[in-house]
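Input (structure):
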């Protein structure tokens, strides 16, 4: 996945906002909270950072092409960076981005969720 595809995918999720910050990174938010970052790759290669569940974090931190996201993991947060970005991982990345979006949106206040039309079941 390249950054254009990443931005298109994240932009397709409801109630998201986009900003360029932190060293020209592509930052996606829901309800003002970050759920995905495109950037920080080595040698100008695309890399993607996202929040994970405890289970996925444990699995991904040991998987090839993934590592704990430095600035988040140092603070005890369960964020992973996909740094070995190969086409075969695009479907997995879309799943993890969607899951990150879900986790972050569930952390919003009930009022904010309702205001954004999220998680209303």
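Output (sequence):
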């Amino acid at each position: 996945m390249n950054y254009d595809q990443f931005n298109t995918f994240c932009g397709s999720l409801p109630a998201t906002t986009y900003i360029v910050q932190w060293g020209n990174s592509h930052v996606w938010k829901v309800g003002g909270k970050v759920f995905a970052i495109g950037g920080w790759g080595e040698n100008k290669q695309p890399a993607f950072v996202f929040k994970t569940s405890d289970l996925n974090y444990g699995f991904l931190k040991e998987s090839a092409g993934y590592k704990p996201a430095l600035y988040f993991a140092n603070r005890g947060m369960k964020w992973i960076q996909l740094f070995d970005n190969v086409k075969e991982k695009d479907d997995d990345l879309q799943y993890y981005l969607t899951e990150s979006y879900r986790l972050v949106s569930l952390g919003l206040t009930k009022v904010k969720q309702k205001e954004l039309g999220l998680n209303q079941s």
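Notes: The radius of gyration is 14 Å. Residues 88 and 104 are 26 Å apart (CA to CA).
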